[in-house]
Amino acid sequence: VEGITPDIIVNPHAIPSRMTIGQLIECIMGKVAAHMGKEGDATPFTDVDNISRALHKCGYQMRGFETMYNGHTGRRLTAMIFLGPTYYQRLKHMVDDKI
Fold first, then answer.
1. pLDDT of residue 1
2. I need a surface site. Which of 19, 56, 63, 85 has the fewest CB within 10 A?
3. Model pTM score
4. What's the confidence (pLDDT) of residue 58?
5. Is 97 exposed, middle or buried (0-12, 13-18, 19+ CB in 10 A)?
C-alpha cells in the first residue's frame, strides 16, 4: 500500500464517448517512464502491448490496474482501478480575457 490519493477521478463512460484513449496510453506510459526515470513515447501509434510488458517488468499489473483502499474504513475496493499520472495544462486563452 503506497498511500496514493487520486487528484482526479474520471468516469469510465467518458473514455469511449469522448474518444480519449490517448489519455489511457499516456497514463500507462507515464507510469513506466516515472518508474524507470526515462522519457516515454505516448503518441497514438505507440504499441500498447510493449508498454504493458514494460509496466509488468516494473512490478505493476499489465494494464495499469491497482488495488485501492477506502480511506475511511480501510477496506479494499473490489473494483479494478486504473491509476496513472496524467499531465494537464491550463490554456492561455480564457473567456474572460476575450470579453
1. 57
2. 19
3. 0.72
4. 93
5. exposed
Degrees to nearest 5, angle at CA 62 with 57 and 64 = 110
Closest CA to 42 of 59, 61, 28: 28
Q: What is the dihedral of CA 26, 35, 55, 79, to 10 degrees?
A: -80
Report the pLDDT averaged over residues 63-89. Answer: 88
The neighbouring-strand residues paired with 82 are 65
Go through the chain and tell me how many residues it has.
99
Q: Which one-letter amino acid corresponds to residue 76?
A: R
Phi, psi of 15 (to 5 degrees): -65, -55
* Start-to-end Cα distance in the chain: 48
Could you tell me the residue ranges of all domains in the chain?
14-98
CATH of 14-98, one of 1.10.10.10, 2.40.270.10, 3.40.630.40, 2.40.50.140: 2.40.270.10
Beta strands in the chain (DSSP E): 65-66, 81-82
Beta bridge mates, 1: none
